[in-house]
Amino acid sequence: MFVDTAKVTVQAGKGGDGAVSFRHEIYVDKGGPDGGDGGKGGDVIFYADGGLNTLVDFRYKPELKAQDGVAGSKRKKAGRMGESLRVKVPVGTLVKRQGEIIADLTWSGQEAVVARGGDGGFGNAHFKSSTRQTPRMAELGELGDAFEAELELKLLADVGLVGFPNAGKSTFLSVVTNARPEIANYAFTTLSPNLGVADIDDGSILIADIPGLIEGASEGKGLGDAFLRHVERTAVLLHLIDCYSEDVAASYTTIRSELAKYSPELATRPEVVALTKCEGFDDEMIAMQTDALRSVVAKGTPIYTISAVAHSGITDLLRELRRIVVQSRAKEDEGEILEEYSSTITLSSEQLSEHWEVTYDEQQKVYHVAGDKIEKFARRTNYDQFESVNRLRDIMRRMGIAHELSRSGAVGESMVQIGDSQAFSFVEQ
Ligand SMILES: Nc1nc2c(ncn2[C@@H]2O[C@H](COP(=O)(O)OP(=O)(O)OP(=O)(O)O)[C@@H](O)[C@H]2O)c(=O)[nH]1
Ligand SMILES: [Mg+2]
After folding, report:
1. How many A from CA of 206 to the centre of ligand 2?
2. Best residue for ligand 1 mutational test, from 176, 183, 255 (most atoms within 8 Å of Cβ)
3. How many angstroms is it from 171 CA to the middle of ligand 1?
4. Axis crossing angle, helix 248-262 with helix 283-294, rounded to the nearest 10
5. Could you tell me the pLDDT band of residue 232, with boundaries at 50, 70 and 90?
6. Is 244 left (phi over 0), alpha (psi -120 to 50) or beta?
């Protein structure tokens, strides 16, 4: 099992501002208010896609931004909604916000809104009442959610490379994938597992390269067999056998027996065998080595001859590996489908608390009001419009906040600040 991580900034769209406008009609001096509402900002939506298998793409697009909503306009015309940004992520991606899981995308097609677009502001058409015939105020659109999302993906390799040290495992990985493992002409060059994605035809497979095994690995010889856990859930094992080896049959059977000692189940995994470093051998020699192998591998196990250096035999081998991977994953899916559908998205929905609190800052001489709901109203207030600020004062009155401010000593010209919004006088001056 490997863990891939990435950090991306997600930014949902801002809501469009509401409009202030009045109907123009012939013979009517001043028509009623007809300013439309702003459109909602676009969401940032992640959806799981079975065709992706790493988060590597996110290293190159660290900022994911949805479109802003458009402001409302006259004749009660609502602003267009901002377009949501849909982002493809691999199946199995966890999305965290400050360490807390907000989405867990476990099946292909599943989606989660990870950042919500801001609501659009109401236009002045909304604020007409019997006492207010010509409202010269409109709400501002709200800012969209923005935060740094931590993505985490536990990777299951599709193909595990097994073989003696120096067999050419890391070289193979470096030739067929984007991975750049260390390669050298001595045993135990690889000390910890490497992972790479190989593209083949219209798909890709994830290949894990682990340190070489030797006889007695199961008793801790060499680097031991503990690294086999990294290939335990692969769909297929690729045995790489050095064509220069004097006894290829023994090379194969030694590795097989170490696998069986580690886990009898692993020993039943589909296998493909490949003779490596073949570019320097003639056909006769290759046929001899292949025959020797044929006598020990299970019937039906394909044997390939490849050269990583000369890039020969590679495509056919990858195709065969992919065929086995697709086949075996399809079988697994059938077994796991019920479990998958019972998974939940833990994205918390917006629930604003009505609760508020008033505090007085002696130094700044400002009354601070904190509370989810009132802060939301404050964020939507356009402080340049006195009517908008008056509406905010109204809301404070209805919520009992104004009463509390008076009790705490606020007078008409006292300054009040709600959340991080702009400060304003308690009573219109
Ligand atoms: N001639 C030839 N040499 C190769 C080929 N593939 C790998 N080698 C050489 O074989 C040596 C070992 O290669 P590695 O890829 O490091 O082998 P490994 O199996 O990863 O070895 P460990 O990490 O020690 O288990 C290096 O010197 C490679 O250059 C090949 O196709 N042809
Ligand atoms: Mg290696």
Report:
1. 16
2. 183
3. 5
4. 40
5. confident
6. alpha
CA–CA separation, 410 and 407 (whole Å): 7
Ligand 1 atom nearest 279 alpha carbon: 32
The class level of CATH for 2-155 reads: mainly beta
Q: Look at residue 347 in the predicted model and tell me its pLDDT.
A: 40
The CATH code that applies to domain 159-336 is 3.40.50.300
Across 377-402, b (16+ Cβ under 10 Å) vs e yields bbbbbbeebebbbbbbbebbeebebb
How far out from the chain centre does Cα 192 lie?
Answer: 26
| Strand partners for 113 | 45
Pair of tokens at residue 211: 């340190």
Q: Domain extents for the chain?
A: 2-155, 159-336, 357-425
CATH architecture designation of domain 357-425: 2-Layer Sandwich (3.30)
pLDDT for residue 23: 86
Complete DSSP assignment for 271-295: EEEEEE-GGGS-HHHHHHHHHHHHT
Tell me the angle at which helices 372-379 and 386-398 cross, rounded to the nearest 10 degrees.
170
pTM of this prediction exceeds 0.70: no
Looking at the CA of 167, name the nearest ligand. Answer: 1
**Chain mean pLDDT for the chain:** 89
Query: How would residue 1 be classed by pLDDT, with cut points 50, 70 and 90?
Result: low
